[in-house]
Amino acid sequence: MTYLQLTRSRVILVCFLLASLVVLKFPAIDIYLAGLFFDGRFHMQWQWWERALHHSVSVFLYASMAVVVGVYALNRITRARRWGIDGPKVLYLLLVLAVGAGLVVNATLKDNFGRARPRDVQEFGGPKLFTPAFVMADECRTNCSFSSGDTAGAFFSLSLAMAFGRRRALFVTSVVFGVAVSIARMAAGAHFFSDILVSFFVMLITADVLYHYMLLPKPAALPVTKPVLVSS
Question: Does the reported pTM lie above 0.70?
Answer without folding.
Answer: yes
